[in-house]
Amino acid sequence: GRIDDIAVAETNTSIIYVGFATGGVWKSINNGTTFQPIFDTYSTASIGDLAVAPSDPNIVWVGTGEPNNRQSSSYGDGIYKSTDAGKPFKRMGLETTQTIARIVIDPKDPNTVYAAALGHLFGANKERGIYKTTDGGATWNNVKFIDEDTGFTDLVIDPSDSKTLYAASYQRRRTNFGFNGGGPGSGLWKTID
User: What confidence tens digit (pLDDT) does each residue in 6-18 have?
Assistant: First the structure.
């Protein structure tokens, strides 16, 4: 039932991708008149974010793991990429992040991609942070890490200067008896390099 993200191909706005918290990825090629599931054969149906490369609409990224702070949040198993508009996808790593809340792609270089990893909902993990690839996902570097309880929930790239990015960090922990959202790790961040 929960929609986590909608992505539209900038060069053809009739192509729409919808990512569901627990229902996979659906694609429309007719401006939303009909949708078809395109992520049913993969090991998770929990979607956190979608991104279509501004410079190449055939490149589509899927970050798995619902980033919502619900008691029933489902986790994912990494980040996926398609170079053929969603058929097929290939897993490109970041499996232990469990939740990818945002993906941004350099508008001029589709091989440079950033992923905001929110991390585990129920426990600490060192795989939280902002990850960057410059080789289309073959390798990833954690370029911003705060601590094992704080991940990143949002990330944007300045369309006029791809070296400038803004990010929102969020400290969170759910237990069987409650939820602690916020803390000293939460904040806004900016990089110009």
Answer: 999 999 999 999 9
Write down the residue that tokens 């149906």 correspond to. 45
Alpha-carbon distance of 102 to 111, in angstroms, equals 16
Strand partners, 3: 20
pTM of the model: 0.95
Three-class secondary structure assignment of 116-158: EECCCCCCCCCCCEEEEECCCCCCCEEEECCECCEEEEEEEEE
CB of 87 within 8 A of CB of 77?
Answer: no
Q: What is the pLDDT of residue 71?
A: 67
> What is the per-residue pLDDT across 82-132, written as a single tens digit (0 to 9) for each?
999 999 999 999 999 999 999 999 999 999 999 999 998 888 999 999 999
Q: Say if CB 65 and CB 99 are below 8 A apart.
A: yes
- Provide the sign of the torsion angle of the four alpha carbons 162, 82, 142, 170, taken in this order: positive
Q: What percent of the chain has pLDDT over 90?
A: 85
What are the two backbone dihedrals, phi and then psi, of residue 95, each rounded to the nearest 5 degrees?
A: -60, -40
The residue whose two tokens read 């929930």 is 153
Give the contacts of 159 (CB within 8 A, at least 6 positions apart). Answer: 107
For residue 3 the two structure tokens come to 């929609």
